[in-house]
Amino acid sequence: MGGPEPKEGGRELERIIFFSDAVFAIAITLLVLELAVPEVPADRLGAALAEQLPHFFAYVLSFLVIGQYWMTHHRLFRHIRRYDIVLIWLNLLYLLGIAFLPYPTALLGAYPTTPLVDLFYGLSLLWPTTVSAVLWFYVRRRGFLSDELPPDTQRQLGKRAIATAAVFLVGAGAAFLSIYAGVFCWVVVLPFVRMLVVRRF
Amino acid sequence: MGGPEPKEGGRELERIIFFSDAVFAIAITLLVLELAVPEVPADRLGAALAEQLPHFFAYVLSFLVIGQYWMTHHRLFRHIRRYDIVLIWLNLLYLLGIAFLPYPTALLGAYPTTPLVDLFYGLSLLWPTTVSAVLWFYVRRRGFLSDELPPDTQRQLGKRAIATAAVFLVGAGAAFLSIYAGVFCWVVVLPFVRMLVVRRF
Amino acid sequence: MGGPEPKEGGRELERIIFFSDAVFAIAITLLVLELAVPEVPADRLGAALAEQLPHFFAYVLSFLVIGQYWMTHHRLFRHIRRYDIVLIWLNLLYLLGIAFLPYPTALLGAYPTTPLVDLFYGLSLLWPTTVSAVLWFYVRRRGFLSDELPPDTQRQLGKRAIATAAVFLVGAGAAFLSIYAGVFCWVVVLPFVRMLVVRRF
Amino acid sequence: MGGPEPKEGGRELERIIFFSDAVFAIAITLLVLELAVPEVPADRLGAALAEQLPHFFAYVLSFLVIGQYWMTHHRLFRHIRRYDIVLIWLNLLYLLGIAFLPYPTALLGAYPTTPLVDLFYGLSLLWPTTVSAVLWFYVRRRGFLSDELPPDTQRQLGKRAIATAAVFLVGAGAAFLSIYAGVFCWVVVLPFVRMLVVRRF
User: Fold this and answer.
1) pTM for the full model?
2) Residue B50 sits at the chain A interface (C-beta within 8 Å)
3) ipTM confidence
């Protein structure tokens, strides 16, 4: 494709990061709108709130997941110094996945034990992870990364991007069998895998 | 009209850009609220989700469209160095169109094959495009553009603004006949036209 | 009250402005959520959309009104150099009024010809205007304004703040008689009054 | 746990503050969505609006509460110079509580006199306060605070964090008995306690 010359970051790159941060912040805060106030007599409210537990669970899970994505995005863009229109589009496709998450969250709250929904949720998580990995390899191949980042670290981070995507792929499958297995992958296995690499730089 | 003297950009111009970026980010993230969780028995959920396909399609389409507008706005304001109150109002009228887009998106998801809705959606896209073209000619005529931008490029960008508005006008008409024809205009024809000009600077 | 010493602006004042801008941007973009997609057969959609005209009218009106408030806030804070906790609270009370506006907007869309609603809408506009005038006199009295702002201009701006509040007060009353009279005040009379003063600096 | 080395703030710390401010601004502005337009004949609208008084009360209360949290967060992060991943997670857990507040607000509006709801609301306020106190002690112990902040002031602020959490704990209990008692704690007692300490620095 070629396209126009890559541009030096500065002001423009900051605006891209700002836009991404705003989408993260809005998506994570919109999650609460999926929690509906029960319409029952006051004396049955306790039971009604207890029935909403899956919704609260989905809320907290997605909040932490989006927070995790935000931190990863953070770390990734800290190393980027140049950009082109392909990078902007990849970032938009990534944000499409982030901004979409309130929907699978609401779905998971409403149908917590339906395998199809668990799979849907898992695949929704897989999307930004995959785009993020593609984005990483793109910026590496095009030389958009900070020169201060040693090639060794770049390779490490590449491995981490693949490992993360793999965990999410396994997690989506596991979620189809049981949402608990999926959550175990995303919440326990994933940070563990990540931490192994984070230690390196 | 005359009005007060144009002011040098700096801090103030940044605040206008920040405000615009925030509106873009919020509008693009609010799109997801139009996706309603189906209320059916769990075993009929697969079919219910399949029925929602037009909503998902409208979601992705509008996400990419707003993303595209955001990039164009980006590129436009990168060249602006001075502003006055007319520019601020034009920008507000532009943002009115952007912030409105979640509504035609929801309409398109609910009535994907109704010609009236397709036209409505198309005209909703036409509005920010047209205001954007007016804004461009205004800043050019008033000399608000960066002095580094050669007159030749300014003319090129003016042509592009008109070409874009023309594609959207044709697209709105095409959408009235068939939503596919409209989408073809916005998604295939438009970036093609834009790329022709982008190459130049 | 006394309270803690006023602080020099810099970074902190910027964060207050950023927060205010974000509330403006969110409130103005949330307006669209009040527009509900009609649920009628496709062949009756045209009529249903036509019935929604008051909603579209309320949407555009409130969008322009919030935009106008945003610009005024802009202009006001451009001159502020110091702040204290009272200023932050006044600004929060002001933003409470801005963030509330989507509700009277929805009310106006649903009951466009009910005098009570028109009055409610008018009073909702009166709130931020009044707080804004109080805020202006507070910062003036405490000497929080830029030293570059000549005392003469400060007085002019004070007069404008009072004039604006007066127009809104009259507008709320006029809206009770007829929404058109109210809109005339806010959209025609107000910018006219403002422009008279803007010319001065 | 140890983990990676703490990093000097600068750009990254700013992005964390920006993200937090955005969540605050969105949560505070989303509150208005909980106010539903009554669907009654126009002549019964006055009575319907009067019935909504608890909702308006909950709206204003939560607006001021979130505003208060925002200011506290402000003040806290003004002194932070370094950060690590634990700080980011603590901040996320804090924001989870802030972003959640529109839900208990809606609940309080719908069931203003139900003790369970008042307790629920009180506990929702307790969460961010507690996390905030933990965060404060963490940054102090790790030496993330500005060196300009004298140890004496640090101790004062630590005491204030504990005092605030204690007031909220008492307030949650008081709210269970009567929402008015709870509100009295949060709105009257709390600022009083805070002011006592603020005077010191």
Assistant:
1) 0.91
2) no
3) 0.88
